[in-house]
Write a structure and sequence with these properties.
Elements (H helix, E strand, L loop, with lengths): L19 H6 L2 H5 L8 E5 L5 H10 L4 E6 L2 H14 L5 E5 L11 E7 L8 H11 E12 L5 H13 L2 E5 L6 E8 L1
Parallel strand pairs: 1-2, 1-4, 2-3, 4-5
Antiparallel strand pairs: 5-7, 6-7
Helix pairs in contact: 5-6
Keywords: Methyltransferase, S-adenosyl-L-methionine, Transferase
Organism: Methanosarcina spelaei
Family: Belongs to the methyltransferase superfamily. Arsenite methyltransferase family.
């Protein structure tokens, strides 16, 4: 069985991804509020139960949308339920991806890969696919947990990102995390 430290974080542990403490530690508005504007299309990769998707949906406003991607239907169902209760269902497009392919058709202004790139078996294909979805001025924010991803491992991911056509433009500060904001090279 997968857990949140190996393989893919199981839907059975979703409660750990969506707590008040996490909202304080990983406040979406502080982490990526400057990168998402009203009317944009955002992509939440490995969205889980929707912790970040709901905040992104508020940020993009009524004319924007959030494509929330996960490989587990159970996570997407949790997101659907939460977005319905929050009145944000019309802004969020849940998308079940395959383990080796995201498979969306939209172009996005902002993509978030929060605590999930280390779970991806083929980072080069994954990041190349993400690049193909970014609009010319689109941004990708990769955030990985310091307790699980070492500095050399994170640097290796950034090298793969570079080979996939991305360029790092900043290193945002995210508590307990390693982070990089990237654009198309």
């Amino acid at each position: 069985m997968a857990n949140c430290s190996t393989d893919v974080c199981s839907y059975k542990r979703a409660w750990a991804l969506d707590t008040r403490i996490r909202n304080y530690i990983h406040d979406p508005y502080k982490i990526f509020g400057d990168y998402i504007k009203e009317g944009q299309t955002a992509l939440d990769l490995g969205c889980g139960p929707g912790f970040f998707s709901l905040a992104m949906a508020e940020m993009v406003g009524e004319k924007g949308r959030v494509i929330s991607v996960d490989i587990q239907e159970e996570m997407l169902q949790m997101l659907r339920d939460k977005s319905e209760r929050a009145g944000l269902k019309s802004r969020i497009i849940p998308h079940k991806s395959q383990p080796d392919k995201i498979g969306i058709s939209e172009m996005v202004d902002f993509a978030l890969a929060f605590y999930m790139v280390h779970e991806v078996p083929d980072k080069k294909n994954f990041l190349s696919e993400v690049v193909s979805y970014l609009k010319p001025d689109g941004k990708l924010l990769i955030v990985e947990p310091k307790f699980h991803v070492s500095k050399p491992d994170f640097d290796s991911t950034l090298k793969v990102a570079q080979s996939a056509g991305l360029k790092q433009i900043s290193e945002p500060k995210v508590l307990f995390s390693r982070a990089a904001l990237l654009i198309k090279a």
